Backbone:
């Protein structure tokens, strides 16, 4: 018992220390330890929590990696409406706003000006200082419960520094650097890039799988108290920010002004200076700071009369397209790229922009030699907006994407229902390079130490021509060691990681192939359904579409991929080199929960939510996040809530942990 108490104290101390480091890194932007030291602390905590599952805490920093999978988001009625703001587009409109404010104000007016973060607004509820719920703004009255995803954001405190009941409003966003990195990953996986940071943040926050949200570089600025600020002894926006900071929140950067002339001057100044910020803003928010004056001004049905948003003018520039080049991606998609005279837009010089596909080019009638207007979509991604037809050269001709792949010469194909033109040659050198980068990535075979630069070097040296060649590199270890930037230790580590990957589960290999439309989740589904590589390769169209979550287009993509003779030869080479071709979940279909859909609710005493999920899946069952008529039974722990009520209403069997273990 004494030992157990010591372990408990150790776990609590670790959690507190890790959250302090999270606050220093993600809120203060002042790291207090190195990444490797942080990783050691986190590994120690995770190890102890696994060894002592009864000491698990849903608010432990170890749970910020995500893991919950929902079938849908629940609707949430906001306690306080999340109003929108009226907009101003120039100094005159700001001066008009100031006159209206001063006409009603009974005392001296002070303004606070904040960055208008280009993200997604959320309301976060705390009870006794503990995170309770995170919800999207929705229409301002009804939003969606995205708690599991909000909890993965490391700048969101899970426990406040005071045990207060509080609801705050913030803006979730993705920093510029993280956005560019995220789009690079999307490209490597053959997925469509996000149009701008706001879309990326919104899409990430609405992922049903919280692990995906956790993998995205989401951040937050908190800018308002939705509960009655007076109840906390607050009298102004300035005091509110100071208090929120003391509780552990990361607040939006702000400045104080006593005159609207100074506010307008600052707005003009920020039109250019905003480009140097590490995150995207699309304007500034001007608020009356004293709450007494806010009460006098009140609200309209949609917006407060004491605040207004100043929107920056869109920045565009003209330039001339010198060339349209085509690139070949991992899945064979032929992407046109406009090369134009370098021009400064939104704070940086750009000289190229993707033209997406032939439909995009046709719609805007973009040609080589055209004078075009360019801007940065979301102030980040260069985009061609329109053509100045008055300056088009007389000899210009419409641009058409090539009928043959520019790398391998294979005929290009536009698959029915898709906008993209593709090279279907699986042995195309351009596709192989991208395919190798994807194959070794974390979400595929997860081979440490093998990255983009190394792959390019090995291809240029003629040492790898397809995925299977990775597993022959040991034969060339001496050659690689003599190459620039390589040493005995780095080569040894690389070869060890490659060898280790041979034992990966089948789903990693399927994901690593980069089959169009087949991501990590679909790969797991296929591995479990068909049990081994031969089963999947020999699957018919009907068998594929009958598999859960595998649709018509996905089935056709799988059949096309495995129908290639070159792919069959490559897979046989991988098999001969000792790669595992079997799903570790093969026996699960014969388990005690075979074919059963199970929901887990409430606090369990002997299992974490993750550990019981693994146990159910290993024994053939499927874990669902919501109760329906298709649910076979619900495992009910302490303090079970709405899911138990719904199970009772639907007549779904409810069992205890003891019952669950007896079934096992």
Residues:
């Amino acid at each position: 018992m004494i030992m157990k108490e010591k372990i408990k104290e150790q776990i609590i101390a670790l959690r507190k220390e890790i959250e302090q480091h999270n606050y220093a890194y993600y809120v203060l932007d002042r790291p207090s330890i190195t990444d490797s030291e942080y990783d050691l602390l986190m590994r120690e905590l995770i190890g102890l929590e696994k060894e002592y599952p009864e000491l698990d805490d849903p608010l432990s920093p170890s749970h910020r990696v995500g893991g919950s999978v929902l079938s849908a988001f629940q609707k949430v009625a906001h306690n306080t409406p999340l109003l929108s703001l009226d907009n101003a587009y120039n100094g005159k409109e700001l001066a008009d706003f100031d006159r209206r404010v001063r006409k009603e104000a009974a005392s001296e007016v002070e303004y606070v000006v904040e960055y208008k973060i280009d993200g997604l607004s959320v309301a976060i509820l705390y009870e006794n200082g503990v995170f309770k719920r995170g919800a999207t703004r929705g229409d301002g009255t009804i939003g969606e419960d995205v708690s599991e995803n909000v909890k993965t954001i490391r700048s969101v405190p899970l426990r406040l520094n005071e045990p207060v009941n509080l609801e705050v409003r913030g803006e979730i966003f993705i920093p510029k650097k993280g956005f560019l990195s995220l789009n690079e990953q999307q490209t490597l996986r053959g997925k469509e890039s996000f149009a701008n940071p706001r879309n990326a943040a919104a899409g990430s926050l609405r992922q049903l799988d919280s692990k995906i949200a956790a993998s995205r570089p989401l951040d937050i600025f908190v800018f308002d108290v939705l509960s009655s600020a007076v109840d906390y002894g607050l009298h102004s926006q300035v005091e509110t920010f100071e208090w929120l900071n003391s509780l552990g929140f990361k607040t939006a950067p702000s400045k104080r002004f006593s005159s609207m002339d100074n506010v307008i001057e600052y707005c003009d100044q920020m039109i250019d200076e905003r480009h140097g910020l590490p995150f995207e803003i699309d304007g500034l928010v001007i608020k009356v700071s004293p709450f007494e004056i806010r009460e006098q001004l009140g609200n309209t049905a949609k917006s407060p009369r004491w605040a207004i948003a100043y929107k920056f003018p869109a920045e565009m520039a003209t330039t001339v397209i010198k060339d349209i080049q085509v690139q070949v991606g991992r899945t064979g998609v032929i992407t046109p790229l406009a090369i134009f005279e370098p021009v400064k837009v939104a704070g940086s010089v750009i000289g190229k922009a993707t033209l997406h596909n032939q439909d995009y080019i046709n719609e805007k009638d973009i040609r080589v030699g055209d004078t075009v207007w360019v801007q940065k979509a979301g102030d980040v991604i260069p985009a061609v907006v329109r053509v100045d037809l008055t300056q088009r050269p007389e000899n210009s001709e419409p641009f058409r994407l090539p009928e043959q792949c520019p790398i391998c010469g294979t005929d290009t194909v536009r698959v029915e229902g898709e906008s993209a033109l593709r090279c279907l040659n699986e042995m195309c050198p351009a596709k192989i390079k991208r395919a190798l980068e994807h194959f070794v990535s974390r979400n595929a075979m997860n081979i440490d130490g093998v990255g983009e630069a190394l792959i390019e070097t090995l291809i240029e040296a003629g040492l790898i021509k397809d995925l299977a060649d990775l597993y022959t590199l040991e034969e060339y270890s001496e050659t690689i060691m003599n190459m620039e930037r390589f040493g005995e230790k780095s080569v040894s580590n690389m070869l060890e990681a490659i060898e280790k990957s041979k034992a990966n589960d089948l789903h990693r290999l399927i994901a690593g192939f980069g089959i169009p439309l087949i991501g990590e989740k679909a790969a797991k589904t296929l591995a479990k359904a068909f049990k081994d590589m031969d089963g999947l390769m020999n699957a018919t169209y009907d068998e594929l579409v009958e598999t859960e979550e595998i649709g018509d287009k996905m089935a056709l993509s799988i059949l096309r991929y495995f129908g290639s003779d070159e792919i069959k030869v490559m897979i046989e080479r991988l098999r001969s080199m000792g790669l595992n071709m079997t799903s570790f979940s093969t026996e699960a279909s014969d388990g005690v929960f075979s074919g059963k859909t199970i929901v887990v609710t409430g606090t369990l005493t002997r299992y974490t939510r993750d550990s019981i999920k693994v146990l159910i899946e290993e024994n053939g069952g499927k874990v669902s996040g919501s109760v329906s008529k298709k649910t076979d039974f619900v495992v009910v722990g302490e303090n079970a809530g709405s899911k138990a009520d719904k199970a009772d209403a639907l007549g779904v069997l409810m069992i205890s942990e003891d019952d669950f273990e007896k079934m096992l």
